[in-house]
Write a structure and sequence with these properties.
Helices cover 47% and strands 17% of the residues. Helix 6 runs antiparallel to helix 13, helix 7 runs antiparallel to helix 13 and helix 8 packs parallel to helix 9. The protein has a single domain, classed as Rossmann fold, CATH 3.40.50.300. Helix 9 links the parallel strand 7 and strand 8. The chain is built from 13 helices and 8 strands. The radius of gyration is 18 Å and the shape is globular. It has 282 residues and is of the alpha/beta class. The chain starts with a helix and ends with a helix. The relative contact order is 0.18. It has an 8-stranded mixed sheet, sandwiched between helices. The structure holds adenosine-5'-diphosphate and magnesium ion. Adenosine-5'-diphosphate binds next to helix 2, strand 7 and helix 10.
């Protein structure tokens, strides 16, 4: 009996101690590679022994299920409607990743009623203690729903391509995030880079501008090379790092996972991530 109780306590302590590192993946412009990055990064981190939960929070254009070839009967909209619990909609995805599918068609988290938001936050809070990493694939742009996820995350990965319009829009997101004073660590990832030195130029220019004009540190998350294997894998509905693990972009994802996997700072334990999301609205 006593042994039973001690075991229960130990389990409780273990469960409450573990708090996931939350990474939001966002961008100014759409189509820059957020979903591919989220999915492949999740698989690489899982391969490195981390437990990873991937959430498709692009409420306008949810497509991680297609990318990962997962057929989802239920998604976040069923949780919002109170028809399913969050535990019931977690799906097993390739590479050992657990996936929560998005709700295409919902335009914005901010459009939900306070009651609906409360429900989704409460449901998601339970998941914070069940993973080492939670990766959130957000929509593009500076809508309040997207920003709320980023501001509540430990780290926000802002994705840009080397094209000027994409860089300009990434800067606008960074500026908004900086104004929020949320404390989320902002990192820049240059996707579809022709080579390392072009990627570095994009990073340096943007980081210098942010330091000079908005006194904000933008960390360097590195780059992913432009690689035709990426659209090929997309067409095959198979994640790149599983379909073509040794292609140039595949190595970039491994390097990115290595960088992020070393994150050691303790996650915010005082108030859970999803409560911070909630607070953002008030
Ligand atoms: N590194 C890359 N090299 C070549 N094509 C890429 C790369 N990353 C993404 N793509 C292509 O860009 C398109 C958009 O990617 P996606 O991940 O859906 O973007 P987002 O989620 O930002 O809208 C996809 O069709 C994909 O094949
Ligand atoms: Mg996407």
């Amino acid at each position: 009996m006593l042994v039973d109780q001690a075991e229960k306590l130990r389990l409780m302590v273990r469960q409450t101690k573990k708090t996931a590192h939350i990474l939001a993946v966002t961008s100014g412009k759409g189509g820059v590679g957020k979903s591919n990055i989220s999915a492949n990064l999740a698989i690489c981190l899982t391969a490195a022994g981390k437990s990873v939960l991937l959430i498709d929070a692009d409420l306008g254009l949810a497509n991680l299920d297609v990318l990962l070839n997962v057929r989802a009967r239920y998604n976040l909209s069923h949780v919002i409607a109170g028809k399913r619990s969050i535990e019931q909609i977690v799906q097993n995805a390739p590479g050992g990743v657990r996936l929560i599918c998005g709700a295409s068609g919902l335009s914005d988290l901010a459009d939900l009623t306070p009651f609906q938001r409360q429900r989704i936050v409460q449901e998601l809070t339970a998941l914070e203690h069940q993973a080492d990493f939670i990766i959130i694939d957000t929509g593009a742009g500076i809508s309040s729903g997207v920003l709320s996820f980023c501001e509540a995350a430990d780290q926000t990965l802002v994705v840009t391509t080397p094209e000027p319009p994409s860089i300009t829009d990434a800067y606008a997101v960074i500026k908004r995030l900086a104004q929020g004073h949320s404390g989320t660590k902002i990192s820049l990832l240059v996707n579809m880079a022709p080579n390392r030195s072009e990627a570095r130029k994009v990073y340096q220019r943007l980081a210098q501008t942010a330091a000079k004009f908005i006194s904000t540190v933008v960390y360097d998350a590195g780059y992913v090379l432009r690689d035709e294997h990426v659209p090929e894998a997309v067409n095959q509905s198979e994640p790149l790092v599983l379909a073509y693990p040794r292609c140039p972009a595949g190595y970039c994802f491994l390097a990115l996972a290595g960088k992020l996997g070393r994150v050691s700072e303790p996650a915010n334990v005082k108030s859970g991530f999803f409560h911070r999301v909630m607070n953002w609205f008030y």
